[in-house]
C-alpha cells in the first residue's frame, strides 16, 4: 500500500470539516465530539467573570490566615469555602446541611 500526500485544496469544500492554509487551519463546521479520555493540549484557559465568558470562574482572593486561635482559623477557613462556592469551584451545601 502506498500513501500519497496531496496538498490541501483551497476553495469550495464538500464536507463540513476540512483543512485550509496548507494544513495549518482545521475548520470544524460539523459536530466536534470529545470523548472522556481525550486531552486538549495548548488551549489557554480564560477566567470567566460576571461580565465576560470563560472556561472557569476565578475565586476571590483569600488572604493568608494570621489566626492565633481555633475560632479565628475556623472563620478564615469558612470564608475560603464561601469564596470557592461563590466562584462555582465547589458545590453548594446540601439543603439543611449545617
TrEMBL record:
GO terms of biological process kind: symbiont entry into host cell; virion attachment to host cell
Keywords from the named record: Host-virus interaction, Viral attachment to host cell, Virion, Virus entry into host cell
Cellular location(s): Virion
Signal peptide extent: none
GO cellular component entries: virion component
The protein's name in its UniProt record: Head fiber protein
Gene3D superfamilies on file: 6.10.140.1630
InterPro entries membership: Phage_B103_Gp8
UniProt keyword annotation of DNA-binding present: no
Amino acid at each position: 500500500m502506498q500513501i500519497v500526500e496531496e496538498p490541501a485544496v483551497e476553495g469550495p469544500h464538500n464536507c463540513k470539516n476540512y483543512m485550509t492554509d496548507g494544513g495549518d487551519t482545521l475548520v470544524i463546521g460539523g459536530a466536534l465530539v470529545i470523548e472522556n479520555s481525550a486531552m486538549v493540549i495548548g488551549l489557554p484557559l480564560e477566567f470567566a467573570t460576571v461580565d465576560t465568558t470563560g472556561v472557569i470562574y476565578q475565586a476571590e482572593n483569600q488572604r493568608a490566615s494570621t489566626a492565633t486561635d481555633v475560632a479565628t482559623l475556623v472563620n478564615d477557613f469558612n470564608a475560603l469555602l464561601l469564596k470557592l462556592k461563590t466562584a462555582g469551584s465547589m458545590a453548594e451545601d446540601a439543603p439543611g446541611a449545617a
